[in-house]
Design brief:
There is one protein chain. The chain is mainly α and 362 residues long. The strands form two sheets. It has a four-stranded antiparallel sheet with strand order 3-4-6-5. Strand 1 and strand 2 form a beta hairpin. Helix 1 packs antiparallel against helix 2, helix 1 packs parallel to helix 4 and helix 2 runs antiparallel to helix 4. The longest helix is centred in the middle third of the chain and has 76 residues. The radius of gyration is 38 Å and the shape is rod-shaped. This is D-alanyl-D-alanine carboxypeptidase family protein. InterPro entries: DD-CPase-like (IPR052179), VanY-like_core_dom (IPR003709), Zn_M74/Hedgehog-like (IPR009045). Keywords: Carboxypeptidase, Coiled coil, Hydrolase, Protease, Signal.
């Protein structure tokens, strides 16, 4: 029956093999999804909605693979630490055993080397008295003690060898798993970069000046929207705001891409892009509107405009139940945009539309 320690190591190794299988399966699924998206891109390079979803899925797969690597490294580091502790204990026990063994072994050896001297002389001379019997008993005890010490040393050595082999196998598995995951992560990172590059190219073809205002192309990278959470409402820097086709208007990356895709669909229906009167508002702009139009603007610091997730529209959409409004109401959810419930009645704002990341991801 395997020892508890061996069973634990086997469990660790089996868990790692299982996680490798899960990662490989997940990567295969991600590769399949990417291949499907590639077909879509080849047929319709301007399909921003599909490109955005593909970029977000690639980013999610990359994050999950990176997390799996970190968890695996932590588990293996713990196992390594436990093995190191066991080997340290064995080394300490070896030293202690040697100290006990040395004088006993030396004494037995000296008795055999000098059978005519010392306390063993009466026994070795053949005298059958109490002294020789005591000497015989002492010698038997010493030999027995020596044999026990040698047996303990042998068991200790075997245990050391066993643990050393387990440690070597564990470290070899660790290196293999880390190498495999590193390849997976590198592949996912390259795939994500390729999708983002295609997305930037498509945006540029549609008239979005990705590098407008001295900002980098990362401002329109939907895989980096988590950076927006680092800034307060209404205080987003240009580096996390992606420009729209409409001059001077901007939103956070995922919302901007989805809006451009929605605007392109609107353009195919009505022959022109959507009219936008407002998009991202900084804190000062929100305060000005709040005091100028009380009851028709959110409290500064609480508006979705300040998060780069809302637009105010014109060109017919601002008229409730107009053809444009009804079309947008029926089609906007496909792109992750909604007309919020409150805007139907309190306050009544047919022009106000918001981006819902959860809806867009479905």
């Amino acid at each position: 029956m395997p020892s508890p320690r061996s069973a634990g190591l086997v469990a660790v190794l089996m868990a790692m093999v299982s996680m490798i299988s899960v990662t490989s399966s997940g990567t295969a699924q991600a590769r399949s999804v990417t291949q499907e998206k590639k077909v879509v891109r080849e047929e319709d390079p301007a399909n921003l909605n599909e490109l955005r979803r593909s970029a977000e899925k690639s980013s999610k797969a990359l994050a999950e693979a990176t997390k799996a690597l970190e968890q695996r490294q932590a588990t293996l580091a713990k196992a390594d630490k436990e093995l190191k502790g066991k080997l340290d204990q064995l080394r300490t026990a070896t030293v202690a055993l040697s100290k006990v063994r040395r004088p006993l072994a030396d004494l037995v050896q000296s008795l055999y080397q000098e059978p005519s001297g010392g306390d063993m002389a009466p026994f070795m001379s053949g005298e059958d008295d109490a002294t020789s019997l005591r000497a015989l008993s002492d010698m038997t005890y010493l030999v027995s003690g020596r044999d026990e010490v040698l047996a303990d040393a042998g068991r200790l050595y075997q245990e050391q060898q066993k643990l050393a082999n387990q440690a070597q196998d564990l470290r070899a598995t660790k290196l293999l798993v880390e190498a495999q995951l590193s390849v997976e992560i590198d592949t996912l990172r390259k795939r994500s970069a390729t999708v983002v590059k295609s997305l930037s190219t498509a945006l540029a073809k549609l008239g979005v000046r990705v590098n407008q205002g001295g900002r980098s192309g990362a401002a329109c990278d939907p895989t980096r929207v988590s950076a927006v959470a680092e800034y307060p409402n209404g205080l987003l820097p240009k580096s996390v705001l992606c420009p729209l086709q409409q001059p001077g208007r901007e939103l956070r990356a995922d919302a901007a891409i989805a809006f451009v895709a929605l605007s392109e669909a609107y353009k195919k229906q009505f022959g022109k892009s959507m009219c936008v009167t407002d998009s991202y508002r900084n804190l000062g702009q929100q305060q000005a509107i709040f005091y100028r139009r009380p009851g028709f603007a959110a409290v500064p610091g609480r508006s979705n405009h300040g998060l780069g997730l809302a637009v105010d529209l014109c060109g017919g959409v601002d008229v409730f139940r107009s053809v444009q409004f009804n079309w947008l109401e029926a089609n906007s959810k496909r792109f992750g945009w909604i007309h919020p419930d409150w805007a139907y009645h309190s306050p009544f704002e047919p022009w106000h539309w918001e981006y819902d990341p959860k809806l867009a991801a479905s």
